[in-house]
Amino acid sequence: MRGRWWFLILWPLFLAGCAARVPAGAPPDASGPALVTLVPEPEDDPSASLCASVEALWARDWDQVIAALEYLQAAGQECGPGRPTAARLYAAYYAHGLALEAGGRPREAAARYTQAQTLAPERFEATDALTRLSSSLAPGLEVCTPETIEAAVLLPYIPSNAAGYVAVDGGDLTLDGALFLVHGVSYTPRGWADSRFWSGVDLVAVRRELDLIREAGFNVLRLALPYDVLFMCPGNGAIAAPEAISRLDAIIRLAAERGFRLVLTLNDRPDLSAYPLYGSPAHTTARTLFLAHRYRNEAAILAWELRDAGDLDYAPLEGEAAFSREQVLAWLGTTAALIRSQAPRQLITAGWLRDEAATLPYVDFVGLHHRDDAIRLRERVARLRGLTAKPLVVLHVGYSTAQLSETRQADLLSDALEAMAFDGLAGWVIWTAFDVPAEAAPDGVDSHFGLWQADYTPKQALTVARILLYPGQTPEDPAGQ
After folding, report:
1. Do 206 and 114 share a structural domain?
2. What angle do CA 371, 397, 316 make, to 5 degrees?
3. Distance separating the N- and C-terminal Cα atoms of the chain
């Protein structure tokens, strides 16, 4: 580590002509006047070396300054009294954005402004800069009035008391050094067929449903996060919709209080036409960074699932692909790096339907989606075992009683879960908790994957899951029967 940071500090000092003026309008460096110091010796404390490099390279090499400040920020360290690292990092992000914009590199500038906005959403400079760039980068996007932005008050998120982060140890997931097996279910409140529940659901009903799921023995919830509901005014980057984000805060905390760990699925129902996700539009990137930064200290978050069935965007089950495999995977790698920069203690995965091996370079554990039989699942697992030692988790397994009897649904699910246990997978997430009542959505296949019917009556599949969750025991009747 010391050798690497020594190179980081030393190399820019040998570059000729690297001096650059701070662009007009940059927010002041909150540290006070910058003093150029001598390059420290390699055996010096790394933090002292990094602080010295920040002083020496401020306004001369923003990439190196930002790298040093990000390290200090992650380590919770400052370069002396009255020099808050977060304020200095904000200033560096913003000033570098101005320099990039002046150099004719607006997309790179927008990325730096986005980082600044995410780090300090209460500051106005980065938001104003993103608004200025929005007309050229994404013309036609709605822009908030200053009054709307000012009224969008959002209290800081206070993490739950969940202890420890789920981690990867070889081919397993662990929590506080003990094996952690994912036994989860995807959750949408009963009666809400789409993601508008983030701004409308009754939290009393959520409490009741989370109790029902927890009493059944599940330990993980998978939640899909729709950007179009959680945010507003995309022309401004990441402007939170206060009611929706506050409800997300509350549901995360309610889940954590009940002992759940969470898989948060990003980019639910993304824009794939006007400003396609895989072009990394500035406003989408800003929203991803906002979420990762806001919940970076929430230990109940097991993982960020970057995209749900993203391989269908380059290898659809029918019709022509809208994107190339290279486009989607390049986006996946970039997004994984962004999340890690904000939330390094939480894991990263991606739930692919068929081409999950393509995600291996970018994820901490491999996520699979599966709606086929157990034989094909075991074939997929065998192929993956030959490619990676990373943990494998089936993030989506389920069967609809619109097509099958409850008995057949239970049999298929039993076979799949038993195959996962036999093959030593790190766990599974069943799609989904509840059927959707007819009044909430047109009746169809997707409305009947639940373990509970729409009136909370348990299906046979729930009994199957409980038998596997309580091996050697006779499970009590699930709550709601």
Report:
1. no
2. 45
3. 57
For 370-382, what is each residue's pLDDT tens digit?
Answer: 989 999 999 999 9
For 182, the token pair is 């994912």
Give the confidence band of 152 by pLDDT, cuts at 50, 70, 90.
confident
Tokens of 295: 């919940």
The number of domains in the chain is 2
Query: What is residue 452's three-state secondary structure?
Result: strand
State the Cα–Cα distance between residues 454 and 476, nearest whole angstrom. 21
Q: In what order do the strands lie in the sheet with 178-179?
A: 167-169, 172-175, 178-179
Q: Residue 433 half-sphere exposure, CB side, CA atoms within 13 Å?
A: 31
pLDDT for residue 418 is more than 50: yes
- 121/189 Cα distance (integer angstroms): 30
Same domain, 418 and 329: yes
- The whole-angstrom separation of Cα 430 and Cα 214 is 14
> Does the residue 145 lie in any domain?
no
> Is residue 37 within 8 Å of 49, Cβ to Cβ?
no
H or E element, residue 352: strand 347-352
**Same-domain pairing of 208 and 356:** yes
